[in-house]
Design brief:
The protein has 106 residues and is α+β, with helices and mostly antiparallel strands. Helix content is 31%, strand content 28%. It contains three helices and five strands. The protein has helices at residues 14-23, 25-36, 71-81; strands at residues 2-3, 7-9, 44-52, 58-64, 95-103. Strands 1, 2, 3, 4 and 5 form a five-stranded antiparallel β-sheet that branches. Helix 2 (25-36) runs antiparallel to helix 3. It is elongated, with a radius of gyration of 14 Å.
Length: 106
């Protein structure tokens, strides 16, 4: 899994976002490897758009720019991301994180 630089709108630092992604990398990769077993050529990228509450919880998550074309992988990633926890944004307020993930076999 390759992780591209996140686009962050709101008071949450890039380092905190990178840390959360690193913590959940294994489960993110598990979503991919499960589908890779059925399609060994599965590759591409997807952007997750997470809305984070003032308490650091993921309030909503959607996908954009899905170049994987695998509905089950997309659903797995969205379900996993719902459970990610972030530090509370400085000063409160909502934060939107757009994170692109790229997958390729091998």
């Amino acid at each position: 899994v390759s992780v591209f630089k996140a686009q962050i709108t709101g008071p949450l630092d890039r380092k905190s976002v990178a840390h959360v992604l690193k913590l959940h990398r294994r489960k993110t990769l598990a979503c991919y490897t499960t589908q890779l077993a059925d399609d060994p050529t599965l590759a591409g990228s997807i952007q997750l758009v997470l809305t984070i509450s003032p308490r650091g919880a993921v309030k909503s998550v959607t996908s954009r720019q899905d170049k994987l074309g695998n509905r089950l992988l997309r659903q797995c990633l969205l379900e996993e991301a719902k459970h990610w926890g972030f530090p509370s944004p400085e000063g409160g307020g909502m934060v939107v994180v757009k994170q692109t993930l790229k997958f390729s076999p091998g």
